[in-house]
Amino acid sequence: MRKLCRLLFMTVVLFASCSKKVHPAVSAPPKTRISPKTPETVTVEPERAIPAPTMPPAAKTFTVPLVVIDADGKIITSRDNLPAEIGEKVNYTLIAKAYTPAQRNNLIYRSKMIPPRVLFVPNELALTSTKGHYIIYKKKFWYWQKEDGLFHLDETYFQ
User: CA dist 95 to 72, 147, 150, 151, Å?
Assistant: First the structure.
């Protein structure tokens, strides 16, 4: 009986120790490395996911979607950094809105992150369906092109 209890206890401990899930950190701390030339620690900042354009507007080529309005409703990309035909149509007073607290909680609960509200996507990266032009951002969020030429997050994510 004693051996049976020990065997049962060891089995329970084994399953309990192997069933622990490992969750990644919400935000990774900056990576540090020690330079061989200097003894002090050098901090390496993580790279931005979306590069900030620095070229003049006429010579821009985008290979990734460009965030126009972020999740807080702040304007990230001005009219000067957008192509001329789209920059003229954009009305920032209508599209610069933040998520409500309920929408923000819904996004965090469903997708573990808060995506930007509005993106600029060049025509080469956009996909086409019977419903219109769209893009899938970070393999998770669907953005649809509206009349102003910008891509807005599908409302089913935050409604």
Answer: 12, 12, 10, 11
pLDDT score for 59: 45
Please state, as a whole number, how many other Cβ atoms lie within 10 Å of the Cβ of residue 5: 9
Is 61 within the bounds of a domain? yes
Number of domains the chain is built from: 1
In the three-class reduction of DSSP (H, G, I as helix; E, B as strand; rest coil), residue 133 is classed as strand
- Residue ranges of the chain with per-residue pLDDT less than 70: 17-62
- Whole-model pTM over 0.90: no
Residue 41 burial class via C-beta count within 10 angstroms: exposed 0-12, middle 13-18, buried 19 and up: exposed
In a domain, 137, yes or no: yes
25: tokens are 């950190």
Residue 146 CA to residue 151 CA, distance in Å, equals 6
Q: Is residue 44 part of a domain?
A: no
Domain carrying residue 116? 57-157
| pLDDT of amino acid 21 | 58
Question: Cα 95 from chain centroid?
Answer: 19
In this predicted structure, what is the pLDDT of residue 81?
86
Which H helix or E strand runs over 43? Answer: strand 41-44
CA dist 31 → 47, 48, 52, 84, 122 (Å): 11, 14, 22, 39, 33
